[in-house]
Design goal:
With about 70 residues, this protein is an alpha+beta fold. Helices cover about 25% and strands about 40% of the residues. It has one helix and five strands, in the order βββββα. It has one helix at about 55-70, and strands spanning about 10-15, 20-25, 30-35, 40-45, 50-55.
């Protein structure tokens, strides 16, 4: 979702990291999201440009792990 078009139900994460969140609605480029912290429901609105799809984040993290594990040093 590199074009930042999220829809309700999409799982996202802030580009800078943090908990996985679920998009509730999107209005004018602002995604209203929900997530839990210690069993407490949290809500917030974020510009779509600040979010990344969970799948993209997980794939990028897996790629970094493969690169690090294949590094043999000097």
């Amino acid at each position: 979702m590199s074009d930042h078009e999220f829809k309700p139900g999409d799982q996202v994460i802030l580009q800078s990291g943090g908990p996985y969140m679920t998009v509730e609605k999107v209005v004018n480029g602002q995604a209203s999201c929900v997530w839990f912290v210690d069993n407490e429901l949290k809500r917030g609105a974020f510009g779509e440009c600040l979010l990344k799809a969970k799948e993209e984040f997980v794939a990028a993290r897996a790629g970094r792990r493969r690169a690090i594990s294949s590094y043999e040093g000097y």
